[in-house]
Write a structure and sequence with these properties.
By secondary structure, this protein is mainly beta. The chain is about 10% helix and about 50% strand. The protein has a 13-stranded parallel β-barrel. It is elongated, with a radius of gyration of 28 Å. The termini are far apart.
Length: about 475
């Protein structure tokens, strides 16, 4: 009679080693999640989620997924997914590998957050996993209705969109991620209402549809910092896109900081840009102003696209301390903007970057139909293949001082239909032996002063 319990114990020890040490089986063992690269683990992972396993830890392996794993936070409560950098998910179906669905309908203010959101849904997290797309419509991670979503140390490649944020989210952090070589968009803010998003220390590259993109979205407090963002615009025949592309059409995007990033490549794509912002927003009842903005672009390294910085219909932007070169159409374009401050930027044509077709970069800076702008301490160096190195056309109340425009080629500074403005303390010289251009050209200006510039060539005035 005593032998039977002993035999049972031995059998349990062989089939379940945790029995000997009193351990419970792991999440993967309990739900039979295999991770061998051959077994379809979709149903097993979804079963673990639906059972309320809030801490989804995956060991080393490749986990095949054929359908989106949906984490409905109102049902399964707070959930975190982690893989310690060794868990790979191969998404073989359409849609995101993981979708977080929350019910937060308030703002970022604490008093608008319902108790059930704090208690059951807040702070979903994903850390240390890789997602590889194996379907044309496979995405990495999507989220809607979340509060304090945090995505760290995640790799998404060969998918459509890397991270897709829709509907409404608040206080999102995306950090230390690699969103690489996807055929859609790296971080896609799509029909989204989102305030407070920090995007830091990420590598976002070679996503054909754009790097960081906002469309049809109300975005506030977007912080992009110390990222490498490059080559997010497909090939020569791809639709226009940009490394950072923020469009307020039918929406509004404002309160943006892009700081300390390297943003570059590729001029081969038509209409490519490093930073493209359109601030033309939906109307509001208390003002006729439709331009949104409050943008800071500071301490970035920008190069090798058709246009490095393109601002249209933006009100309130500071462009400071950037190093900018190889804009094949222009280095900077500002059109129909107001209250732009540009200070301490270097637009330099370094001969070491003349390899390949580098000499074909036209470069130059142009402000068109802009007003109330201040420029200080900016330097443009090298030949510009346009009507002038720096152009102000149909502008009003421009205050520029300390401009250095050097070895520029045809014309250094062109003011055309500029009124109520002043330019002082400018150094505009082309001292190359072959130089025969014009330092300053004034066309149809009124109530505008150009005070004692240091020039190498004549100033041509052509006023009515």
């Amino acid at each position: 009679m005593r032998t039977f319990p002993l035999i049972v114990c031995l059998l349990l020890a062989i089939s379940c080693p945790q029995f000997l040490c009193g351990q419970q089986p792991s999440m993967q063992e309990k739900y039979k999640i295999v991770g061998d690269g051959m077994t379809d683990d979709t149903a097993a992972i979804q079963a673990a989620v639906d059972a309320g396993v809030s801490e989804l830890r995956f060991g080393k392996g490749t986990y095949r997924i054929s359908k989106t794993i949906t984490i409905d936070l109102s049902k399964v409560e707070r959930t975190a997914i982690s893989g310690s950098g060794v868990a790979r998910f191969r998404m073989e179906g359409a849609g995101p590998a993981f979708r977080f669905v929350g019910s937060h309908d308030g703002t970022a203010a604490p008093h608008t957050i319902r108790p059930d959101v704090w208690n059951r849904e807040s702070s979903p997290m994903v850390d240390g996993i890789e997602i590889v797309g194996k379907h044309p419509l496979a995405d990495g991670i999507s989220a809607s209705g979340t509060m304090q979503l945090t995505i760290t140390r995640v790799v998404v490649r060969d998918a459509r969109h890397g991270i897709h944020l829709t509907d409404r989210n608040r206080n999102v952090i995306i950090s230390e991620c690699h969103l690489y070589d996807n055929h859609g968009i790296g971080v896609f803010m799509d029909r989204l209402n989102l305030h407070q998003i920090n995007l830091t220390n990420c590598h976002i590259s070679y996503n054909d549809g754009g790097g960081v993109v906002a469309r049809n979205s109300e975005i506030r407090n977007l912080h992009i910092g110390t990222c490498d963002i490059e080559g997010n615009m497909g090939g020569p025949d791809a639709p226009p896109s940009a490394n950072v592309d923020l469009d307020s059409t039918n929406s509004s995007v404002a309160e943006i900081a892009i700081v300390g990033c390297t943003i570059q490549h590729s001029h081969d794509a038509k209409h490519s840009a490093n930073i493209r912002i359109n601030g033309e927003s939906t109307k509001r009842p208390f003002t006729d102003e439709t331009r949104h903005g409050h943008v800071t672009i500071a301490s970035n390294v920008l190069s090798d696209v058709q246009v490095n910085i393109e601002l249209k219909n933006v009100r309130g932007a500071t462009i400071s301390g950037n190093t900018i070169w190889k804009g094949y159409q222009r280095n900077l374009v500002a059109k129909n903007c107001q209250s732009i401050v540009m200070t301490g930027n270097s637009f330099d044509r370094n001969p070491r970057y003349h390899y390949g077709d580098g000499r074909e970069a036209k470069r130059g800076v142009i402000f068109t139909n802009c007003k109330d702008c201040t420029l200080s301490g900016n330097q443009l160096n090298g030949i510009v293949h346009h009507e002038a190195a720096m152009v102000f056309r149909q502008c009003q109340r421009i205050n520029a001082n300390g401009l250095s425009i050097l070895d520029y080629g045809q014309v250094g500074l062109l003011l055309q239909e500029v009124v109520d403005s002043q330019f002082s303390g400018c150094l505009i010289r082309d001292d190359r032996k072959s130089a025969d251009g014009i330092s300053i050209r004034l066309v149809d200006v009124a109530r505008t002063k150009v005070n004692n510039p240091n020039v190498s060539h004549q100033v041509i005035e052509s006023s009515p």
